[in-house]
């Protein structure tokens, strides 16, 4: 079966089978290098993507669900101002996120930044729980997200 979707700003037309996972299609047919199926259970975050600005684990998602959706990967975010701001905020004060969770944490943070102007702290903590990393305190993640939102709001007001 053929499906079409938007991947990182470009229209993709792919041929899939009913048994294929989104992860497999994105890696094999779309050449996305940032994704891996480390656990294949939607636990580790190495397969995390955003679908219509919502986090999704591509290793447990049928490829058919990509149809007519807007899919974004970390490759797309690394080119944005939002990514630079969030990355800077997360790494302030010497905090470093482990490489195995960095992409998932950045995507989770970006989903929050894009989705709401004032996320509640419990929403931020809940989001981080889906890509938990011992290297990043939940409070630091919350502060990074809130500071990024504040910087973006200020930048939008400045002519």
TrEMBL record:
<dbReference type="InterPro" id="IPR012675">
    <property type="entry name" value="Beta-grasp_dom_sf"/>
</dbReference>
<dbReference type="GO" id="GO:0046872">
    <property type="term" value="F:metal ion binding"/>
</dbReference>
<dbReference type="GO" id="GO:0051537">
    <property type="term" value="F:2 iron, 2 sulfur cluster binding"/>
</dbReference>
<keyword id="KW-0408">Iron</keyword>
<protein>
    <recommendedName>
        <fullName>2Fe-2S ferredoxin-type domain-containing protein</fullName>
    </recommendedName>
</protein>
<dbReference type="InterPro" id="IPR001041">
    <property type="entry name" value="2Fe-2S_ferredoxin-type"/>
</dbReference>
<keyword id="KW-0479">Metal-binding</keyword>
<keyword id="KW-0560">Oxidoreductase</keyword>
<dbReference type="GO" id="GO:0016491">
    <property type="term" value="F:oxidoreductase activity"/>
</dbReference>
<dbReference type="InterPro" id="IPR051452">
    <property type="entry name" value="Diverse_Oxidoreductases"/>
</dbReference>
<dbReference type="InterPro" id="IPR006058">
    <property type="entry name" value="2Fe2S_fd_BS"/>
</dbReference>
<keyword id="KW-0001">2Fe-2S</keyword>
<feature type="domain" description="2Fe-2S ferredoxin-type">
    <location>
        <begin position="1"/>
        <end position="77"/>
    </location>
</feature>
<dbReference type="InterPro" id="IPR036010">
    <property type="entry name" value="2Fe-2S_ferredoxin-like_sf"/>
</dbReference>
<keyword id="KW-0411">Iron-sulfur</keyword>
